[in-house]
Design brief:
The complex is a heterodimer of chains A (241) and B (458).
Chain A: E1 4-15, E2 18-30, E3 35-39, H1 46-53, E4 61-66, E5 69-70, H2 76-86, E6 87-90, H3 102-111, H4 117-130, H5 146-158, E7 164-168, H6 176-191, E8 195-200, H7 203-206, E9 211-216, E10 219-225, H8 226-229, H9 233-238
Parallel strand pairs in A: 3-8, 3-9, 6-7, 7-8
Antiparallel strand pairs in A: 1-2, 1-4, 4-5, 9-10
Helix pairs in contact in A: 3-4, 3-5, 4-5, 5-6
Chain B: H1 3-16, H2 18-55, E1 61-66, H3 86-95, E2 99-107, E3 117-119, E4 122-124, E5 128-132, H4 136-139, E6 144-147, H5 152-156, E7 161-164, H6 166-173, H7 176-179, E8 189-192, E9 195-203, H8 209-224, H9 243-249, E10 251-255, H10 256-263, E11 279-284, H11 290-304, E12 311-315, H12 317-359, H13 361-369, H14 374-410, H15 421-447, H16 451-456
Parallel strand pairs in B: 5-10, 7-9
Antiparallel strand pairs in B: 1-11, 1-12, 2-5, 2-11, 3-4, 3-8, 6-9, 7-10, 8-9
Helix pairs in contact in B: 1-14, 2-12, 2-14, 2-15, 3-11, 12-14, 12-15, 14-15
The chains are: A alpha/beta (241), B alpha+beta (458).
């Protein structure tokens, strides 16, 4: 059973009486442990797709199954719970809270899922260790470099052990070297068995993922799995297929 | 998200904008402290008024006065009017078991009376000058400090003796607080309307609690000063403070018979045995049976007066209800003012919370994207507002002491304000309520933000 199952998803906005079909019949399966990218130019509907996949938004029609749960009709509260437990977000602009220190930022998802103070601390430090920032736990985000801030954001995304990690242009605000480090980190998480979905407009970044889903005008234009296509032996080997 | 976390987050947010938070809290601080100060002033007023009521004999005291104008339906019997007389006293003693300490009194004061007391070159005018029985002491809550009350023998033999209050002493012999010398007037002879009277006793000095403290403080202050003693405190007033106490201190009692024989002979009324009395005092045994007791007294008097209603009852009930009304009015008007300032404070909080959430749209978006529910955000904003108001409330309770003292300095000193725990608890609860009310709308607004729009917001 796939981790994510989209069937004929449509999202229609009404803007001044004009109907805008941001997503127009998207069907998609993503299996557990996949590392895939969603690519498309701006306005293609890739952000809308990510918002729906990430339970930040509900589709106008169609069905969406996540981890076996039908969620197209979930309430706001249920969606918040799913975002908290099953999904981790990494954003282009890091989106850390400036008033909290690094550790508190990483603890934040657990604050909403009812862990004790000690558990929060232990798990947050563990997540920071994974992104090699446990020595900066008392710093403020503003005292860190962009790459470090993004690593804090990644630690926050993985701290609740989500089933699915979304990264929305995670390297868009970083120089190419730092961006490469961040992508390496995602590759490592992928090898450790996490499911990661990378949203980008940059084909070069999309090239690092085994599977590439291209969105154009609200529809899936290309859905290439290079492992199956035999295009990338190394990646196929890495994924043990 | 547990409540402690939310409160910690709220405190952090408040601490991050210290000055802004303080300005916001100022409204609540002023509201709470004015509420406490207002209630303290009303409480002081209430205590002062009730002290006065108690000093005049309290609610148990009934006065029966002659009322020489008969009601309309008895006008044709006007020539048979006697007013209250001594036979009434004896009749009540025998036949009205619900009242006790029936005490006759003939007063020579008020309009038309020109009672003058003199000692050497000093003269005094009493507020109350009565010929009465020794039991007047009990009826009017008097306490002898020097000498004794005149007794039955003095009354029977119509001795020229008197008992005076401290106000009379101050006028005739000098105020010990001013002169620095205590005067024991017992044994001295003064004249009352040019007839010699020997002072056999003096009452203690009556004053309200607040006036007493102020007087002691003034004495202590004066002791520290060297040089000639003088009263240079601009806030000082006539001694005794409350009118009820001043009235009581300026009392002179002489035996009833002395009054009738020595001082009323010139007026040439009836013989003393049937003399018309000014007032008949008595006390009810049980205040709960006040109405029944009044009816009983009325029945007895109707018998002795042959059915003529030439007497009237006076109780302090009217006075007591007057006090209640005064207090209620003061409380309502003060409460409205304090409530308005609390509401203004609440509007300030609501305003700053709205500004704060529009500053933090992005933060709210981030929190929502990582799993905060609508109610998490709602509670967070609401708690922040309540914490702000509660801090303001606590600070307000602190400043209420200062404000109350300040107000007490300018307000009438015989009713100095009294801060009560109840008022403080109420004011604090009000500040919490204001915090909730002020936070509701901003919290609603913040919690309804859509996560995607909030995340895109700059």
């Amino acid at each position: 059973m796939p981790l994510v199952e989209l069937r004929d998803i449509r999202k229609i906005y009404h803007l001044g009486g004009e109907e805008i079909r941001a997503l127009d019949g998207v069907s998609l399966d993503i299996a557990e442990g996949e590392f895939c990218s969603i690519i498309g130019p701006s306005g293609s509907g890739k952000s809308t797709l990510m918002h729906i996949l990430g339970c930040l938004d509900s589709p106008t029609s169609g069905t969406l199954k996540l981890d076996g749960l039908e969620i197209q009709n979930a309430s706001q509260r249920q969606l918040a719970g799913i975002r908290n437990q099953k999904i981790g977000f990494v954003f282009q602009f890091f989106n850390l809270l400036p008033k909290l220190n690094v550790l508190q930022n990483v603890e934040l998802p657990m604050v909403y899922s009812g862990f004790t103070r000690r558990q929060r601390r232990e798990r947050a430090l563990e997540a920071l260790r994974q992104v090699e920032l446990d020595n900066r736990s008392k710093h403020r985000p503003s005292q860190l470099s962009g790459g470090q801030q993004q690593r804090v954001a990644i630690a926050r995304a993985i701290v609740n052990n989500p089933r699915l990690i979304f990264a929305d242009e995670p390297t868009g605000n970083l120089d190419s070297h730092t961006g490469e480090l961040i992508l390496d980190m995602f590759r490592r998480f992928h090898r450790e068995g996490r499911t990661i979905i990378l949203v980008t407009h940059d084909p070069e970044i999309a090239a690092v993922t085994p599977r590439r889903i291209e969105i154009r005008d609200g529809k899936i234009a290309q859905n290439i799995d290079r492992r199956l296509a035999g295009l990338d032996r190394d990646l196929a080997l890495a994924a043990n297929i | 998200m547990n409540l402690l976390n939310v409160i910690a987050t709220g405190l952090r947010e408040i601490w991050a904008h210290k000055f802004r938070s303080l300005l916001t809290m100022l409204g609540i601080i002023l509201g709470v402290s004015s509420l406490v100060a207002m209630s303290a002033m009303v409480k002081g007023l209430e205590l002062g008024l009730k002290e006065g009521l108690a000093a005049m004999g309290g609610l148990e005291k009934i006065r029966v006065e002659s009322q020489l104008d008969l009601p309309m339906h008895q006008r044709h019997l006007q020539d048979r009017v006697t007013g209250v007389t001594m036979p009434d006293v004896f009749a009540l003693q025998q036949s009205a078991p619900l009242v006790h300490t029936v005490t006759p009194s003939v007063d020579l004061w008020g309009r038309g009376s020109r009672t003058v007391l003199a000692y050497k070159d000093k003269t005094a005018r009493p507020f109350t000058f009565s010929g009465t029985w020794p039991s007047a002491l009990e009826i009017n809550e008097h306490v002898i400090e020097y000498g004794r009350m005149f007794n039955e023998v003095d009354n029977d033999l119509a001795h020229p003796v008197c008992v005076i209050g401290t106000g009379i002493r101050d006028q005739l012999f000098g105020d010990p607080d001013v002169t620095g010398q205590t005067v024991d007037p017992v044994g001295l002879t003064i004249t009352i309307n040019r007839q010699p009277f020997t002072i056999v006793g003096m009452f203690q000095h009556y004053e309200g609690e607040a006036a007493r403290q102020e007087r002691l403080a003034r004495i202590a202050e004066q002791k520290k000063k060297s040089g000639p003693q003088r009263n240079d405190n601009p806030w000082s007033r006539a001694k005794g403070g409350n009118f009820a106490f001043r009235l009581k201190n300026n009392t002179v009692y002489i035996p009833l018979n002395t009054m009738l024989l020595n001082l009323q002979s010139g007026t040439n009324r009836m013989a003393s045995a049937n003399a018309r009395l000014s007032t008949l005092y008595m006390k009810v045994k049980d205040i709960d049976l006040l109405e029944t007791s009044l009816q009983q007294v009325r029945n007895v008097l109707m018998m002795t007066h042959g059915g003529l209603e030439d007497f009237a009852f006076r109780t302090d009930e009217d006075w007591a209800s007057e006090i209640t009304n005064t207090i209620r009015d003061a409380r309502v008007s003060g409460g409205i003012i304090a409530a308005i300032s609390l509401i203004v404070g609440g509007i300030g909080i609501a305003n700053i919370m709205l500004a704060s959430i529009s500053e933090r749209v992005r933060e709210i978006g981030i929190r929502k994207s990582i799993g905060a529910t609508t109610s998490d955000i709602f509670v967070q904003i609401l708690v922040e507002s309540v914490v702000l108001a509660m801090l303001g409330g606590l600070l307000g309770l602190g400043t209420s002491y200062a404000l109350t003292n300040l107000v007490g300095k300018f307000a009438a000193s015989d009713n100095s304000p009294v801060i009560t725990l109840g008022a403080m608890a109420f004011a604090f609860a009000a500040s919490v309520a204001v915090g909730i009310a002020a936070g509701l709308w901003p919290a609603m607004k913040a919690s309804r933000l859509h996560p995607i729009q909030a995340l895109k917001y700059d």
